[in-house]
Amino acid sequence: MFDSFFVALNAVIPFLCYLLLGYASNAAGVVDEAFLNRLTKLIFTIMFPFMTFYNVYKAEPGNMPSPALMIFCGAAILAVQAVLLLIVPRLVKENRRRGVIIQAVYRSNFVLFGLPLTASIFGAEKTSIAAMLVTVVITIYNITSVIILELFNDEGTHRIALRPLLVKLAKNPMLQGCCVGLACYLLGLRLPSALEKPISEFADMSSPLALFALGGTLQFKAIGKNLRYLVPTLATKLILLPLALVAIAYALGLRGVELFLVIAVFATPVASGSYPMAQNIGGDGELAGQLVFLSTVISVFTLFGWIFVLRLMCII
Fold it and tell me: Closest Cα to residue 159, out of 262, 61, 282?
C-alpha cells in the first residue's frame, strides 16, 4: 500500500509545484498575461513538436502502442461524443453552453499531463507509447471539437467546412513532430549527438514550462453562478467516465502502461485550448475557462486517487 501511495504522490506532486509556481509568479507580478500568452504560443509551436518528435524517435521496438490501445481510445472518444450529443442538449437549455460542456467531458490535456505522468510511473522509455497515441487522440480532437462547437454556437448557425479542418490538422505542430519522429523511427535515421542532445533537452523542458504557463493563467472568476454546470460536468469528466472506460478496457485485456493511458486520455484536465476555441467560435467562453481551471486543480487529487487505486490493485 505504501509503495502505491508514494508512486502516486511522486507522480502528481511535480504537477502541483509547476502550477503553483506559475500562479504565484503571476500573483506577484513577475509575469503578466501578455507574457504567458506568448510563452504558451512558443510552447505549442516549438516545444511540443520537439517533445512528440523525440518520444517517438527514441522508441524501442517493444515500446510502441498495440493496435488494441489505439483502436480502443479512438473508438471510445467517438462513442463518448455520440452519447453526449444525445444527452447534453436534453439537459442544458442554453445552446452556447452545450458544446462547451460536451467538449469539456471528452477533450483532455492528454499531451501536457499524459506524457510526463507516463514517464514518472513507468520510465521515460515508455513515453513513446503515449506519444504515438497522441496521433490518434489529437487528430480526433482537432476535427470533432470544431464541429461540435459550431453545432452549438451562440448564433445557432452550423458553418462546418472540411477544407479548413484538414488544413488545420496538417498544420498541427504536435502531429507534425510526431510524424517526423515516426518517419525517422521507421527509416532507422539517427541524428548526430550534437543535434539529439538539444532536442532531448527541449523535449524535457516542454511539460514544466507548459504547466507553469497554465498555472499563471488560472483565475477565480464568477465560479459560483455556474456551479450547476461545473459540478456534474467535472464529476463526469474526472470520475464517472474514466471509471466506466477503465472497466471496459480492463475487460478487453489492456494492462499496465496501456491501461494507465486510458486514464491519461480520459481523466486528465479539460484541454486548455478549449477555452480560446469556445470564445472564437461562439460558445460560452467564461464557462469553458472555469472548466479548464477547476479541472486542472481538482485533477491533481483525482489523478493521485486513480494512480493509487490502480497500483494497489496491481493492474498498472
Answer: 282
